[in-house]
Amino acid sequence: MKFELNGKKIDINVAADEPLLEVLRRCNCYSVRSGCDTSNCGICTVWVDDRPILSCSYPAARAEGKKVTTIEGVPAEAHEVMELLANEGADQCGYCSPGFIMSVIAMKRDLTNPTEQEINEYLAGNLCRCTGYMSQARVLEKLWS
Amino acid sequence: MYTANEYRIVSSPEEAAELLNKSKRNRIIGGGMWMRLGKASYGSLIDISRLGLDKIEVFDNEIRLGAMVTLRDIEVNETLKGEFCGALSNCVRDIVGTQFRNMATLGGSVFLRAGFSDIVCVLLALDAEVVRFGKEPVALEKYLAAPRERELITHIVIKRSGQTVRYESLRQSRTDFPLINFCIAAYEPVNAADSQKTDSEKKSYRVCVGARPGKAVRCKTAEECLANNDLDGAVKAVQTLNFSSNMRGSAGYRKQMAGVLLKRAYECPVNNA
């Protein structure tokens, strides 16, 4: 399968039943992690053609010819969000952070001046079992201020 | 998790149909969201994502949605936001998360006929039509009642009849499966003979209840009651539908809530539009 990963052309053999997550980890993108493995938690979020998807459920072979972006592909934007997360104590165990950050950056690109409800709806698919979400809410407020 | 021997991205519906008919183990893959949660061993997975079935086409008298249109496409499409009182775009908003809805497809949702499906309940109220490759289009109501067949759904077509639509669902928490869902669509008459009737008599209704937890069904008795302005009768009628219990709610609770949702939907704004 040929695809573009964070701006680099990749040519790799994939199994018919292999999820994209496994392939990305084989390509050394270790930020991409499996969480619930049932398409619910958002930890494995990456972008395919700039749309956030769940890489644990996305058939790898479907990415043929597509552009895949992980957190390694958006270092400047990721750093901005990461710094805010750290300052607000919103990255406790950190396991969900890459997926959350990818969703936040996608949301920043997708929505203009979103309301609190729109933000909550957009990020409803990203679960965090450490923080209780208040610290993330502060991050998002600062991100738009 | 499933296993598969081959993943084939097809370039035409003919190729998809031929491959599908080649072996009972071959399967069309839509978003693949629920497929991966089951345990199955497939021969060829047939990927139809490059057939141009991801378009929402708006015509004067109908809206044609490709089978590979995602739930997120439906949610954010500007035309759909303003059509059918926004019921179609709103009904998908609580389905898991943005990433999930970027993958889950309309065709997959219809083919799956899951009881918890929000969108199937709304499509049933909208009297949608299922277009299958090489077959006659069929009303969704008939499609849902028939046994599942090995076929390629290409489009879902909804007539623009000026329906007034209201969708309601109950969830234990947002993004969870609905423990019951409900959709009501009010139709203005096209029959000239009806023009002599009063406003309230003119309307006809489609009343659909899903997540009973079985798949969505119409309640024709409730529809007749509403057409005769008999709201209490309609409430009683929806409560005679077949409800069951599961971990999200008991049959009794669902039965009560079906009546509540009907009243809520009927009073605002279906009957006031």
Describe this structure in words.
- The complex is a heterodimer of chains A (145) and B (273).
- Chain A is α+β, with helices and mostly antiparallel strands.
- Helix content of chain A is 36%, strand content 13%.
- Chain A has five helices and five strands.
- In chain A, strands 2-1-5-3-4 form a five-stranded mixed beta sheet, covered by helices on one side.
- The longest helix of chain A is centred in the last third of the chain and has 14 residues, at 97-110.
- The radius of gyration of chain A is 15 Å and the shape is globular.
- The relative contact order of chain A is 0.17.
- Chain B folds into two domains: 3-47, no CATH class; 56-272, Enolase-like, domain 1.
- Chain B is built from twelve helices and twelve strands.
- Chain B has helices at 13-22, 71-76, 78-82, 87-91, 98-101, 106-112, 118-125, 140-145, 199-202, 220-227, 231-238, 251-267; strands spanning 3-9, 27-29, 41-47, 56-58, 62-66, 129-132, 138-139, 153-159, 164-171, 178-187, 204-210, 217-218.
- In chain B, the strands form three sheets. Chain B has a five-stranded antiparallel beta sheet with strand order 4-5-8-6-7. Chain B has a four-stranded antiparallel beta sheet with strand order 9-10-11-12, sandwiched between helices. In chain B, strands 1-3-2 form a three-stranded parallel beta sheet, covered by helices on one side.
- Chain A binds chain B through residues 16-17, 19, 38-40, 42, 45, 51-54, 57-59, 61-62, 64, 103, 106-107, 121-126, and chain B through 1-7, 9, 29, 31-33, 36-37, 42, 44-45, 47, 49, 72, 93-94, 96-100, 102-103, 174-175.
